[in-house]
Design goal:
The complex is a heterodimer of chains A (299) and B (310).
Chain A (H helix, E strand, L loop, with lengths): L1 H12 L11 H30 L3 H4 L16 H9 L2 H33 L4 H12 L7 H10 L6 H7 L1 H17 L3 H9 L4 H12 L1 H17 L2 H6 L8 H9 L7 H21 L1 H13 L1
Helix pairs in contact in A: 2-15, 4-15, 5-6, 5-8, 5-9, 5-12, 6-9, 9-12, 10-11, 12-16, 14-15
Chain B lengths: L1 H6 L3 H8 L1 H31 L15 H7 L2 H32 L6 H8 L1 H4 L2 H11 L6 H8 L13 H29 L3 H9 L4 H29 L3 H6 L11 H9 L5 H36 L1
Helix pairs in contact in B: 3-15, 5-10, 5-12, 10-12, 11-12, 12-15, 14-15
GO biological process, one term (chain B): transmembrane transport
Organism (chain B): Rhizobium fredii (Sinorhizobium fredii)
Subcellular location (chain B): Cell membrane
């Protein structure tokens, strides 16, 4: 019932039916700009709040009566100084960087070979293997961390960065392989055939022809893998005990959160600085990022 | 490197290198080693651990279904199952509705369109734990900015106890999860929207379709396959969520927000009962499969039906 009346309403107001640019401005404000503004405000407010808290002096942090909470009078760098010079934060940042880079390079290397083999070498059973890679991507870390802790312990890499560098590929390799398979598929077979006729080996074809053509795919996969490993939490929480090996998310949560008195300024500064590297990386490669995200979904 | 150096000198080796199966095996080897060591083996090991009474620092013995029998009588476990289902269901629906709306908005002729698209994805890019910390501060029981704003506006009298009350806590963690999940749904659906040919919309509007009819009978059917995949991923990530709960509530108050993943962690790692934790993780699998089947085939079938009508 409702829809029919609503439809009639729209027929009446929407006489200039057709392209959206013909819609009158007031209507566009209500149906487009206003909701958009609300979305952007809600999605970005936590970041603003993070940033403003990180530079607020402690006296203003909880004094909402004398100072407007939305703004800061006389911003301070105390929280950031405390974070950088009196905690292990720089070390965590370094660890996260090492782990993310290590696991990304490792996964990307393994994925290039795997994706090429599945997509182009066409060995017996390459189709089922490709499907298994996709299924592996669907296995969530939260059902793997207990047995993995066991295995990491048996390998003797418990509580070391190697534990993370070796376990992150479990979710990075399936993702990168799946993404690269799509890219390799788009490279014409003829290029490869003519190289084969000219006597190139498979290795030469991969290095000289396929990889240069797949550079956008490699960037997408690499950036996405880096972000995923930067953001990983449950493995890092389970496999790392000592403070000097912790990653940023784990370090901030387990060492900066102490007792009942929260150092909100330092905590938010930690959250902000931990987010910055991925945000900067993301801002440079937005399109690659979007294409890897949607690429994985579309396949 | 080793492939070329070992492949060059002898001719028998060279002909072996021409064989696709040998070559495929070699190329698959690095990925296979990782995935077998750290994915397939742990999956099997997890199932096995679920049948043992392993604790941290002590190898367990096989105890059959005892862990599962214990869990079946454990009200906290069933509460966590309920919480997980509620969390997944509500958060997924909200993410879908709001994400689709945002995707439709972004698909319009907006000024600074690519800038907006880039900005909107930010919640999904930053580490969940770190944005969850910001939410923790936003949900603070005394100094919550939401409470303060509402009090200033005269909507409420005292601060809202966001994370201390079971119902509020559930709503709060769902809101934080939706906040983080919207961008993924929106940007993926936007990619789908952009593949719908404009000529279809034009043809529909020439035939006199209203904007709602164009959405309902052109956009939505064209979008359903992508919706099915996006929502399957979304359900999967929501169902197995751990980080958000671990930061915001650690499962409290009175286990009202304990998800199966957080319960599994709590019993397994700080609690030391690896066997029981693994059993909870294994118990997630059937629910997870059901949730994926539901979202994937539930949405996929509508595509077939609509395809059949055509």
């Amino acid at each position: 019932m409702n829809t029919t009346t609503k439809m009639q309403d729209e027929v009446l107001t929407d006489t200039a039916e057709g392209m959206s640019y013909l819609n009158r401005l007031p209507r566009r404000i209500v149906t487009l700009y206003l909701p958009m503004a609300v979305f952007v405000f809600v999605l970005l407010f936590p970041f603003y709040w993070m940033a403003i808290t990180a530079v607020k002096p402690n006296s203003q942090l909880t004094d909402y009566n004398n100072y407007s909470p939305f703004w800061v009078v006389g911003p301070t760098l105390d929280h950031i100084k405390y974070l950088l010079f009196e905690t292990s934060y720089p070390g965590w940042l370094w660890n996260t960087m090492l782990v993310a880079l290590g696991s990304t390079i490792l996964s990307l290397g393994a994925s290039i070979f795997a994706a090429y083999a599945i997509e182009r070498v066409r060995f017996t059973g390459s189709r089922p293997v490709g499907l298994m890679i996709f299924l592996a991507y669907l296995v969530p870390p939260s059902i793997l961390f207990i047995p993995l802790a066991f295995i990491v312990f048996k390998f003797g890499i418990y509580d070391s960065k190697l534990a993370l560098i070796f376990t992150y590929p479990t979710f990075l390799i399936p993702f990168c392989t799946w993404l690269l398979m799509g890219y390799f598929r788009s490279i014409p077979f003829e290029l490869e055939e003519s190289a084969l006729v000219d006597g190139a080996t498979r290795w030469q074809i991969l290095v000289r022809i396929i990889l240069p053509l797949a550079v956008p795919g490699l960037i997408s996969a690499g950036i996405f893998a880096f972000t995923l490993s930067w953001n990983e939490f449950i493995y890092a929480l389970t496999f790392i005990q000592s403070s000097e090996n912790k990653t940023v998310p784990v370090g901030v949560l387990t060492e900066l959160v102490r007792g009942d008195v929260f150092e909100w300024g330092a905590l938010m500064a930690g959250a902000l600085f931990g987010s910055l590297p991925v945000v900067i990386l993301y801002s440079f490669f937005v399109d690659y990022y979007v294409s890897s995200m949607t690429g994985a979904v579309k396949e | 490197m080793s492939i070329t150096s070992s492949g060059k000198p002898p001719s028998a080796m060279a002909s072996l290198m021409q064989n696709n199966n040998v070559l495929g095996l070699l190329f698959m080897l690095p990925a296979a080693i990782f995935l077998i060591c750290f994915l397939t083996y742990p999956l099997g090991l997890g199932v096995w651990l679920g049948f043992t009474d392993t604790r941290i620092g002590r190898d367990g013995i096989f105890i059959g279904l005892e862990n599962y029998e214990f869990l079946a009588r454990d009200s906290v476990f069933w509460l966590s199952v309920f919480n997980t289902l509620l969390y997944t269901f509500v958060a997924s629906i909200l993410k879908f509705a709001l994400g689709l709306w945002l995707a439709l908005l972004l698909n319009e002729n907006l000024p600074f369109k690519s800038f907006f698209r880039a900005i909107v994805l930010l919640p999904w890019v930053v580490p969940t734990v770190l944005s969850a910390l910001a939410f923790w501060w936003i949900y603070d029981s005394q100094f919550s900015i939401i409470s303060w704003s509402l009090m200033e506006l005269g909507v409420i009298d005292g601060p809202i106890n966001f994370l201390g009350d079971p119902t509020n806590a559930r709503a709060s963690v769902i809101a934080a999860n939706v906040w983080r999940g919207i961008p993924f749904v929106a940007i993926s659906l936007l990619a789908g929207l952009q593949t719908i040919p404009a000529s279809l919309q034009e043809a529909a509007s020439l035939d006199g379709a209203t904007s709602w009819q164009r959405f309902r009978y052109v956009t939505l059917p064209m979008l359903t396959p992508i919706i099915a995949v996006v929502m399957t991923f979304s359900v999967l990530f929501t169902f197995t969520d751990f980080q958000l709960i671990y930061v915001l509530t650690k499962g409290g108050p009175v286990n009202a927000t304990h998800l199966m993943a957080t319960l599994s962690f709590q019993r397994g790692i700080p609690g030391g009962q690896l066997g029981e934790g693994a059993a909870i993780a294994v118990a997630m699998v059937p629910f997870l499969l059901a949730a994926i089947m539901f979202s994937f085939f539930g949405l996929q079938r509508r595509k077939w039906q609509q395809g059949g009508q055509d």
